[in-house]
User: What shape does this take?
Amino acid sequence: MQTKSKDLKKLSWEEFYNTPLDKKLSYFAENNHLFDCLFSQQFNRKNIDHIFSVATKIRTIAKSKEGLDWLQTLLSHKRAMLYFIQPSTRTFLSFQSACYILGLKVSEIRSTSTSSEAKGESLEDTVRTFSSYTDLLIMRHFEEGFAEKTAWLLNKTKRPVPIINGGSGKDQHPTQALLDLYTLNWAFNDKGGIDNKTIAMVGDLKRGRTVRSLTYLLKNYKNIKFVYISPDYLRIGEDIKHFLKKHRMKYIETDDMKKSIQDADAIYMTRIQDEYDINHESKDIDYSKFHLKKEHLKLIKKNAIIMHPLPRRDEIEHSIDNDPRAMYWRQERNGMWIRAALIAHIFRIEGSILYY
Amino acid sequence: MQTKSKDLKKLSWEEFYNTPLDKKLSYFAENNHLFDCLFSQQFNRKNIDHIFSVATKIRTIAKSKEGLDWLQTLLSHKRAMLYFIQPSTRTFLSFQSACYILGLKVSEIRSTSTSSEAKGESLEDTVRTFSSYTDLLIMRHFEEGFAEKTAWLLNKTKRPVPIINGGSGKDQHPTQALLDLYTLNWAFNDKGGIDNKTIAMVGDLKRGRTVRSLTYLLKNYKNIKFVYISPDYLRIGEDIKHFLKKHRMKYIETDDMKKSIQDADAIYMTRIQDEYDINHESKDIDYSKFHLKKEHLKLIKKNAIIMHPLPRRDEIEHSIDNDPRAMYWRQERNGMWIRAALIAHIFRIEGSILYY
Amino acid sequence: MQTKSKDLKKLSWEEFYNTPLDKKLSYFAENNHLFDCLFSQQFNRKNIDHIFSVATKIRTIAKSKEGLDWLQTLLSHKRAMLYFIQPSTRTFLSFQSACYILGLKVSEIRSTSTSSEAKGESLEDTVRTFSSYTDLLIMRHFEEGFAEKTAWLLNKTKRPVPIINGGSGKDQHPTQALLDLYTLNWAFNDKGGIDNKTIAMVGDLKRGRTVRSLTYLLKNYKNIKFVYISPDYLRIGEDIKHFLKKHRMKYIETDDMKKSIQDADAIYMTRIQDEYDINHESKDIDYSKFHLKKEHLKLIKKNAIIMHPLPRRDEIEHSIDNDPRAMYWRQERNGMWIRAALIAHIFRIEGSILYY
Assistant: This one.
């Protein structure tokens, strides 16, 4: 049984932060409906399927000028703030575009140098200020738990606004996981859906938050097999393996990419996250063994799909882009639609959209 | 009698800048109606009361989607430029939100590094360029007199656009003063209004421009008592004292916060402005005596209100936020409404708003 | 005969880049209608006159609130990205304002530090990402050929979006040339048009891309005489002279400004572009001989016009601004109208505008 919101409100931040996730999810919801979007674990099969329907409908409506003009009336009275302190192009742009699609006005802060943090203001006061003028806060930050702390703080005030986590530290990136899943769902639509598929995840599994978040989300599907392919130093975290074992999800770990991608239905490539290096430890890793090359295309399944959260360096050879199994550009664009659907969900306007 | 605008146009910038304020206010007005908003001294009881009514009406209309959508049609044909070279979060965001509320499109410049000043362009040319593409210029700059100089320059061209001073140097910050006054007016609404009240101002009175601007504005009310509480080094400026004496306004100066806040109807706390330090002189000041702590709450009047222009450091203990007398978060949000009202006033659309 | 687009698609970037311009223009057009706007050479008398009519019509419509509100409905379903890596105020602002006038939503990137290039992403992937979320890409970059390369890349994908070159390196700046030409056309409207006029261009002709682009555009007019006035080191490039000879256009070169401006119908002043200095070579040049001073006003024709792409340093004395022949502030504002017209042209909505 979940701890009640009322009791959660009495906890200090340290106590709250260390509360197991399943005991505190109610704090970020209203009657089981998402208020804040912070963790992949907030999604279940029901709200996932619902948000996917909304995303697909928005995408269809937006094809015509009339449709897009109509969508823009839905939240024309709302203002969103994009607080993106960590460098980002695609997440920022896709959120901003998602806001534009639904008519939200957008303010942005992309550097702490222009803000009052420079004047010694506390985080508490800064985020409360953001919430004073806007109706939605979308945040990307280099600190783990930053978005959660913001939501924790605001939900104690009289005027909380929803928070969407656009990536915090090497922790989570739930909307990336959602768009990844939406892409899997789309690709496997006429192949029995996501259930029973083998998903290979390749690269820096230790620090790649997209891999972590996607794993959490896939708990909502049946009989998934995970193949975690990485250099020894960059293996998937113990917490994720604990999660997999707890939910009896099948996985193997290996460092042999060439061999282990052959049975995969989806191959999810990732970049080495050396910005999180403490002492340049990544430079001694031979990451080239975890690059997908044209020569590998003949080894993988005819129906397999190749994904990547982007940006890439050399993980996928550019010539692969033209292979019909390459799904990463579509995956990227899906980010805009799924984020628009998520915002629609949070503001409870999905009804209007689905019945358009 | 005021100098005529025609004569003022012949003055060089140095002559103009050194002209007493009351002799040049006409240069920034059209038939006694604000064209530029640069100084607190431009406000009188009549236009203050008018702008306050508009702010309150905008706030009411904005509560519904229909109302906010309607407000956004009023200036949908106008474009504003936010030129904010000095770091700022809340002033920037509240002006941007105010523009969005009235439907203005917004351009922003937040750093000189992206602009043509890097190519050796003069200030004159840069601001004239801004005015070429926009209908309203909102400026925040670290130099005293910057907004005034811009308005002086543009009012001599064939296509002037209104300037709003969003803070220039340690000089003035008139819209902050306006929102402070609006908050006082709201809080004392059922207590006989602002007249006859005792206002304590605490902290860095030497360099805090909000204190200066608010003092100027309070001249429009009867029988105000000012209590200026500060360390000796940070006492209120001689020019302000001269102003107070000239207008026979009562004030005392003290460094004993604990004692002197007890009779105040409003306690206006401020941050130490050490960004204006020349030689780190602030670090030797014991500013902790000018911090409001939970233990002080029992000393102050039951009906007193606590204000702060924000951002704060430690001037007000966070636990005070939950006291009903703490008014600074409401005060902050008021900034958005009062700025929307000011813009409405400048563009002369208050009529439509008041009769909505 | 032009090389067919199909054949052009097979070329590598190096091969494509080195293909003569007249052989590859079809790659950036659809049925002779501009798709991308990259080079001045894409304009001919027919599309120039057409775009000028649209600009003038937009300017007229925008005078009323009803008109501007109507214009904003035309592209309300489109999103533009302003990717301005090179510092710029006026080009950026005039493009942004042009987008606002037609109702486009705008995203901006003004520094590579906030983007994924920092994570080692290739140019190809970065621009393809921009194109994923937006419908129009407006770019300013310090590298020659950057906008062309972007358009080359995107036109090979399944979802190309139009590119407008807002200035790339010391190469071209076609929209600046277009606004310069529009200003000439306006000024000479009742003097027989641009044909037969003498155009003096003064200053850093070696590196000033506006001079280069304007020269290309003037090929579309009859019997223009060019007077290129510059220090020896900053003479107009050999490629431009080759172009002039090929098209039998008359020109002279000189370093005697005082003498050679006397017969000019238009005097186009330019700034020394020392940001392109390799070894501070500009500092030894006496540029003051190429400054227009008040004393020169009596030497030039009564009907001559004085132009400058701005920003200026000391090339034109400020007191000249009040002379009726000074056309540079109008020229600047024309940039907004002509850019709006160009965007309208690219999206093929000129019909609606002309018949408003």
The first strand of chain A starts at residue 29 and ends at 30. Residues 5-173+335-354 of chain A form a domain with the Rossmann fold fold (CATH 3.40.50.1370). The CA atoms of residues 78 and 104 of chain A lie 5 Å apart. The mean pLDDT of chain A is 92.
